[in-house]
Amino acid sequence: TPIPPEVWHYTNLVGFEGILSSGRVWATEAHHSTDKSEFVHAREVAAHYLERWRPTDESMTRAKQAAQDILVRAFDEGALAPSRTEIFVASFFATDDLKSQWMEYGDAGRGVSLSFDLRHVRPPDEIGSSVTFAPCLYTTDVKERMIEDALSDWVNTVYELHKKTGSQQWAAERLRDWLVVDQVVGRPFDKAALLESNKEEFRKQLHQSLTRTSFDLLRIASHCKDHAFHQESEWRLALPHIKGKATKSMEVLHRGTNGAIPYVAHNLFSDRLPLIRIKAGPISENIRSEERRVGKE
């Protein structure tokens, strides 16, 4: 989806002052957002989709079970588990005047909405994080298609490997290739070594597919939201971070009671904050109520 020429970020006057003085926008860890369905919602969508899936053969039945297993693993102990991964989120919106955002983040209309041009912003190669900037997904069919696409590599890998284990043709071809290698290197045929080689090849393919699928699920889950929020048309910058891993280009800070809320202060990958316009809240008393264009100086 093309990035709009302007996306808007709502904040109170203290936050506005901090953004201007530091040139940075806070990205809060998603599990501490006001939307308690974050990530849980994506898991529910995926689970319901898989429940309706009707396999046509034994291999596909095995693939469906594997997809359900990876979903549980990803959210309970894998890439999407709060105990393992932090996902820092900075939210922007396609419109400058949203009542919900004024009330939630703009000091009940006394704050500001800030317009940014993020069309040409790209993360540096050395950041060491899988960055996503994309619109949130609200409708069930779109979320299901994206989740299906994320799971497809794992499903297809399990399906093909299961078919191979029951295929006499594949076994014969594998044995033939093995015997050719034995003949070339002059070693006797070792059936146990052949079986172990097959297992190792399967493990390698499954590991590669699991890594790829977990990565895709992480990116998509970061952008799945309940349809009740669809009028917000949110664009989201998501920055995943493996807990305990040293960060590049960003420092994990803490705020709130007892420093319980992790966040990063981010420069949006730009030397100069790509701020275009400022709009005062509808009942702001401290700033003129009309839009003001920000000078390049």
Structural class: alpha+beta
Q: How are the strands ordered across the major sheet?
A: 5-6-3-2-8-7
Q: How much β-strand is present in the residues?
A: 15-25%
Q: Flag low-confidence runs.
A: 288-293
Q: What's the total helix number?
A: 7
Helix/strand order: EHEHHEHEEHHHEEEEE
Structure summary:
By secondary structure, the chain is of the alpha+beta class. Helices cover 41% and strands 18% of the residues.
What brief labels describe this structure?
297 residues; four-stranded antiparallel beta sheet; 41% helix
Your description of this structure?
The structure is a single chain. The protein starts with 6 loop residues before the first strand and ends with a strand. Helix 2 crosses helix 5 and helix 3 (58-76) crosses helix 5. The protein has 7 helices and 10 strands. The longest helix has 31 residues, at 191-221. The model is unreliable at 288-293 (pLDDT under 50). With 297 residues, the protein is of the alpha+beta class.
Strand-helix topology:
Blueprint lengths: L6 E5 L1 H10 L2 E5 L10 H13 L5 H19 L8 E9 L5 H6 L7 E5 L15 E4 L4 H26 L2 H18 L5 H31 L12 E9 L10 E3 L5 E6 L8 E6 L11 E2 L4
Antiparallel strand pairs: 1-4, 2-3, 2-8, 3-6, 4-9, 5-6, 7-8, 9-10
Helix pairs in contact: 2-3, 2-5, 3-5, 5-7
